[in-house]
Structure formats: C-alpha cells, structure tokens
Design goal:
Layout: E1 3-9, E2 20-22, E3 27-28, E4 32-38, E5 41-43, E6 51-54, E7 68-71, E8 73-79, E9 82-85, E10 102-103, E11 107-110, E12 113-116, E13 121-126, E14 129-132, H1 144-148, E15 151-152, E16 156-159, E17 162-165, E18 169-174, E19 187-190, E20 193-196, E21 199-202
C-alpha cells in the first residue's frame, strides 16, 4: 500500500539538533508510516535526539497523551547525535557551554500513542556518541565525574505511552558510546502499555 515517509537529520553546530520531532502532532493513514531520524553533531550539544514523539522528560504535562501515529504498520528508526565536549566554548551570551546535558538518545516516545492497526510495529533506537575535544591545554582535561553527569545516550525510551499492533511488535534499543558511563541503557519502558496481537503487557516500573 501507500507509505508516508518522514526523514530528518539534525544540523551541525548549535545546541538543539534533533532529527525528527513531533509535538502535539498526529498522523493518520491506512498505509505504512516510516520515520527515520538522526541527531546532529557539534560542540557541547544540548539535545541531538534521533526521533522525539511527544515530550522530552522535563516537559511532561500530567501524563496526558500529546499525539498519535495511526497507520497500517509503523516503522521508526532513530540514532542519537555526536557531542564534542570542549571547555571554554562560549555561547552568544559569553557563557561556557561545557557541562550542558548532551541528550543524544536514539528514540524518545513520551506521552504518545502508536497504533499499527493492520500490520506490525517496529521501533529501533541507537544512542549517540561523546567525543572529548583533543587539546593539549590543561583546561581541556575533563574529569570522569563531570562527564558522567552530562549526558544521556540511551537507545530507546518509552514513557507514559501506549503502543498497539495487530501483528508483531519489535522494540530494540542500543546504548551509545560514552566516555565514563551514565544513562546508557538499551531499552527502557516505564508507565506504558504495549499491546501486540492479543497480548497486553502493562509496565509500572523500568524495563531494561
């Protein structure tokens, strides 16, 4: 059948470099829905998520559903971007951007609904990467403790959401490439309902 294809790639530089972002937006079709998003790359990036459906975690609104994708089948692929960590990289206000949250998750589904009403649902997310800027300056030496509080490189996170498919459901997340370790899990599902064919699983805690 017919397909709706959405492809996005975040730019290089700046602070917010998400590939595809749906906020308060819904899509309905009888055919296939394909989303393929890749986060951008830059120095001390704040957010370079591959695909966001709904809200990022710090913007949640009373657990209400903020939008939905409804199609025959749904395929989503997202890859987080790359943050080049660099001290003394100043923003337009003259403030050092080092230590800003590098939110480079592959796919974020938060307060959203997915309904593959005649076919399968597939979501695959890969976390992004951190690179320490190579500089012989003593100022560029970055402690592991500082790094570990400055990034999210999870593959796939689903929270306060609902997914339904009349056939198979495939959910896969692969953590990114950290330097010292932090939020780097593969797949995390919280407070969500996953329904596939005639089986329903309800999550009230993290599934990793």
């Amino acid at each position: 059948g017919l397909a709706l294809d959405f492809v996005g790639k975040g730019g290089d530089g700046g602070q917010n470099n998400t590939g595809i972002e749906f906020r308060d937006a819904s899509v309905t079709t009888d055919g296939m829905i394909n989303l393929n998003g890749t986060g951008g790359e830059g120095t001390n990036i704040k957010k370079a998520i591959g695909v966001i459906l709904g809200q990022v975690a710090d913007e949640m609104i009373d657990d209400q559903i903020m939008g939905k994708l409804v199609g025959g089948s749904i395929f989503i692929t997202g890859k987080g971007g790359t943050s080049n960590l660099h001290r003394n990289a100043l923003d337009q206000n003259g403030k050092d951007t080092f230590g800003k949250t590098a939110n480079n998750v592959g796919v974020v589904i938060n307060q959203y609904e997915l309904d593959a009403n005649t076919g399968s649902l597939s979501v695959t997310g890969s976390g992004g990467e951190l690179i320490v800027h190579k500089n012989k300056d003593e100022d560029q030496k970055i402690s592991p403790n500082k790094e570990s509080t400055a990034f999210k490189l999870e593959g796939l996170t689903i929270n306060a959401s609902k997914t339904t498919s009349s056939q198979a459901t495939f959910l896969k997340g692969s953590g990114g490439k950290p330097i010292s370790g932090s939020k780097n899990s593969g797949t995390t599902i919280t407070n969500s309902t996953i329904k596939s064919a005639t089986s329903t699983v309800t999550s009230t805690g993290p599934v990793i």
